[in-house]
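re: that complex we talked abt at group meeting.

here r the seqs, copy pasted straight from the sheet so there may be weird spacing, ignore it
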Amino acid sequence: MIVCVAVVGHQNNPLYIQSFTEADDALKLHHIVHCSLDVVDERVNNPKKTGPLLNETFLGLLYPIENFKVYGYLTNTKVKFILVTTDLDVKDADVRNFFRRFHAAYVDAVSNPFHVPGKKITSRTFAERVSTIVKSFGLSSAV
Amino acid sequence: MIGVGKMKQYTNVLDKPLTKGKQEVSLSAFAFLFSELVQYNQTQVDNIGELERRLEDAGYAVGARVLELLCHRDKGNRRETRLLGILSFVHSTVWKVLFGKVADSLEKGTEHEDEYMISEKELLVNRFISIPKDMGTFNCGAFVAGIVRGVLDGAGFPAVVTAHFVPVDGQQRPRTTILIKFAEEVLHREARLG
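got the structure back, here u go
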């Protein structure tokens, strides 16, 4: 079950945060996303020699916290996508697929000439597409 | 994106393959739009420097979006961290998508370490434009310079990019050169990466 997705700009400013559970405290999710930014920076600045290459976009599992797992993805313009999920058995391929579609939706939202880079993403279409992707992620990994 | 599309002639329209949609925009449509852009900006400013800056800002917005789009579409999942990498990306991939061909040449400047030049015999945006004598060295290629600056900035290589005319013997119209001057930090980082 995906709990929350977030898009963070290249100066670590939040561009889009959306949570998909009713019960959880939104503030706690914001806090988790914020903490994961440190992990992303650490991964980018000190690449593990055996880990992903220096210029790989998918960062993988960043860190587990309580009963959540946090996945990260870094685009070419230092924009980060953060995914928080409560699933225990998440396949790597599923998460990569999710981020690929999320990236496509993000690129479409940014191509909007009225969107100011650095400001929050206010497009309703983007929000709908993200909800669709999130719903289908839940289904594919349940099978 | 801009170019001449040639369609194979099919005898039966049902035999035509389903297209992905046209990837190209007609050159004349773009030329009209660009001329309107230049004219609109011309009425808003008093001097040439301001006009060049406005065109460059317009190009900057395009460049930022082109970078996002291309990195998602073509580059798979690689992020450019090296100077030569990003320059060759601009020189080939970006030019191919925008103008339908790779840029004519990419050179390293001789006087300074941080200067690189991309030259083009005739910039597509300048094809239907002739600059009146009293505008001096104004070049509508400032739009393209803005695009390059947008791409470099988004990828983390801050630079100052300008467009210049370079007269060439044997040709009536001068060649256009886009001069890219990288910021200090880019060179330091490049030196550190080895």
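couple things i noticed - Residues 23 and 38 of chain B are 25 Å apart (CA to CA). The mean pLDDT of chain B is 79.
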